[in-house]
Design goal:
Structural class: mainly alpha
Oligomer: single chain
Bound molecules: zinc ion
Helix content: 55-70%
Order of helices and strands: EEHHH
Strand content: 5-15%
Radius of gyration: 11 Å
Shape: globular
Length: 71
């Protein structure tokens, strides 16, 4: 299992997000966004996955996930 903070995932607090896979971490991050930063979650849901901002985010997330130490 790996841990990233909300801020590392593009959020704005230091809550730790955990996941055993990229998909799980992304799902947990989204769940946290919906609970803690609903306005950010709404903005993300409106965005197209092919949007350059989303593509850039996904690349950064994958790199951060790969760099995060295994717990
Ligand atoms: Zn947060």
């Amino acid at each position: 299992m790996k841990t990233l903070t909300c801020a590392q995932m593009g959020g704005k607090c230091d809550v730790k997000i955990t996941g055993s896979t990229e998909d799980e971490m992304m799902a947990n991050g989204m769940k946290h966004m919906e609970e803690a930063h609903p306005e950010m979650a709404a903005d993300i849901k409106k965005m197209d996955r092919a949007d350059p901002l989303m593509v850039a985010w996904a690349e950064k997330f994958k790199a951060d996930y790969a760099a995060a130490p295994e717990m």
